[in-house]
Amino acid sequence: MNVATPPDALAAEGLDVCYRVRGRDRVVLRGLDFRIRRGESFGLVGESGCGKSTVALAATRYLPRNGRVSGGRVLIDGRDVLELDNAELRRLRAHSVAMVYQEPAKALNPSMPIGRQVAEVFEVLGSPRREALEKARAMLGRVRIADPASVMVRYPHQLSGGMQQRVVIAMALAIRPSLLILDEPTTGLDATVEAEILDLIEQLRREYSTAVLFISHNLGVIAGMCDRVGVLYAGRMVEEGPTRAIFEDPRHPYTVGLLRCLPRRGRSKAQGRLDTIPGQLPPIGAQITGCIFAPRCVLADDLCRAVDPPPVRLSDGRVSACHHHERAPDLPTTAPPARRLAVLVDQAAVPVLSLDHVSKSFGGGAVTVRAVTDVSLELWAGETLGLVGESGSGKTTLARMILGLTGPDAGSELRINGRALASHAFQRHAAHRKSLQIIFQNPDTALNRARLIRRLISRALGKLAGLAGAERLERLHALIALVRLGERHLDVRPRQLSGGLKQRVAIALAFAGDPRVVVCDEPTSALDVSVQAAILNLLADLQAERQVSYVFISHDLGVVRYLSDRIAVLYLGRLMEFGPAEAVFSGPHHPYTEALLSAVPSVEGGRPERIALRGEIPSPVRPPSGCVFHTRCPRKIGAICERDVPQLREIAPGHSLRCHLHLDELGGAQAPAAADQASVS
Amino acid sequence: MSEVTTASVAVETLRTVRRERLRVILRSPTFLAGAILVGFWILCALVGAAVVPVDPYATDLLHELAPPSAAHWFGTDQLGRDVFSRVIVGARDILTVAPLATLLGTTLGTALGLVTGYFGGIVDETISRLIEAVLALPLIVVALLALVAIGASDSTVVVVIGLVFTPVISRTVRAAVLAERSLDYVSAAELRGEGSLYIMFVEILPNVVPPILVETTVRLGYAIFAVASLSFLGFGIQPPSADWGLTIADNYGLIDGGFWWTVTFPAIAVASLVVGVNLLADGLSKALAE
User: Which of A534, A583, A601, A612 is such that its CA lies 20 to 30 A from the CA of A666?
Assistant: First the structure.
């Protein structure tokens, strides 16, 4: 090794890892080669099951008991991690490497105050107790915790998810590691919080000049955070190189496919279908000859099926493992041409679903949680209503009230086709029940795992459509064809199907009774992007064919934009903005909507200037006076916001919002507004 | 790790998974040892009476209290009956009464657990408090009182032990049902208009079978122990059965005289059966947890 250059922060050389599952070794990483230079940030992307987390576990020798490195080497700071004895390994973990995982709540000791936990890190490094506490306080300050002293005496459960993750990051950076491993550090956090955490990581990384291994399934996050990116597919690095190059000019069909699956900013269902990647990931440990991606690749030919492509070094320092890398950018699209029917919204008729002054409070007396306050909305046949807001904004409570799983407060009125709906599902008329169905977020828990798919769908047809015998069988086949499932998917249990197929079954169940309104509660957030695209296409097709209406909940604004005709923005259980999707996105919009939109990570380089929201979502037990958003609003005018509740006012036909700001001052309206003001003065 | 397993399972057939799981179970030394022990005693209970070398009920006053020898492998008792044959045959009663009692307790406990776990609220509060009250009483005391009141017979033993086990099993089932209750498929069933009974017994029950199975096996071990104890005290299985507990009760006074074989062999039999059942339960719970 060259003495002059310092060793890489992390290097994998021909790394093979396998897991022993039910008595057999199954390969999860296949000859992985990559290096992270000192101070560099390296992103690892790929769909779930590709082995991303295994890389992190192998690098720190934290593989589970049934996993082992079966070939190759991992070097941290030039030292082979696999060769270290226990004492050296402990020293490595104490001084050189730090890790931050997805769920901060699990990384913190629930029975120890925050201050002690952070101080412990310094004590391990040799500081006496008092000094350690002092250092912990300083460290918490560095991760931008406003009041470290009060946070130090609190326990983890008293902090929000974003705060907990800050504490974990503080502990990770306390040792000034040469390598920081971040495994989906912001997954599960709200977009606004995610953006803050990412900014923080970026700043601290530069401050500490730490090398970062950033693992994420979210391409947008990686695009904004990393110098270099590695794309992992089924345990193999299919493409690797500088971030900008990979995202702007991908040279592996898998990377191209992944990027095309994303609903890009501003794209909507009216502009056609999303691209998908056909097929699915090979099973863990599958024996593969030729290119691992060949079965799903449009470019695959006999060469690909016979010979495993060697990594090809291209210009600008990147590597692609594809025989046809030069043809990858022109990959033919797989999406069949759009056969989208124009949605005919007949505004003269009654709305299919209407909510009038709907509220829900939980508990009673001094601690009444007002989850939803006075929301009025209507939904027309064949359209999608997107519900948007941070967690705790009341989206899910609202959806549960529509379905009759949670009873609304007295005074709330829900109507379907103009007829009043009973508050609980079991009190509702059978016809109303079948008209209102749901697609849950997680198909694993939404399908009874003890049942065969055939029986699940038959039962739904029996209960919702009232069918039996031959007629039911006929409808069963029509229904599975509708959701693009085959006969072979019927006589299996849910666990034998992939996430995307399971979600198709869930969609079939919801559509068994020919519903008028389907609530989609984050239907794609548990799925990989390639599968997400296929499910979104299916939902859009079904809507066009059947004129069904959706109430669509998602934290992913790109997805909401793609499917929604109108969007309702909720904050602390109140409707802040409601209007046509395009108008809500392009503005003029509410300051809260503006902040949400600016927090979305995007693969199209250069995040727009992010609008930071100060502090945390206030407690719904004691909501702020006046405008509930005033405590975090970046555009707060003054006393009027704290005193008066702004009325929902219509700023354009069908587009209303709740803000004291003058129409010209609202975000998204700046350019024309400025011009107007100039002419007035 | 979980994503690894789900992904691999996605394309394997259920049969492969089951076969592999079965292989893991069968390879577990714990489970295997338990299966051999319990299997041996079940075999004894089924065919023991037909194959024993000496009639276990035949008295032979010329050879009373004979030490173990080639003719009488485990010696003879004070009536000259062959201890070896009696130990083999003695498996039958306990292996009838204890499983039946466990079955009764499991059935009632599962039903109670489903109801309390599914409905929650006031139903759960009421039944759970009652259960806690029952749990506070020592098993043997309750059983003794009931047996004295109703009179001892095999069926009373089954009913008493079954009822005493019911609250314990219902707690396990309730905990499992609570976890299932919050899953979306239950909400989906409610939205489909399914009745409570259907949701409890058809939707939820199949998914809580593994913990019930483990709990049942553990309870079986306790039931064997309880039956043997009651028989020893004279409130369980009644003479002239060759039951182990009964035999020990009849002969324990003789240990002072050096006639250890009359008590030791039936005692080993009880112990080995209880240990065997517990090994089974251990192996089962490990395999199902994977």
Answer: A601
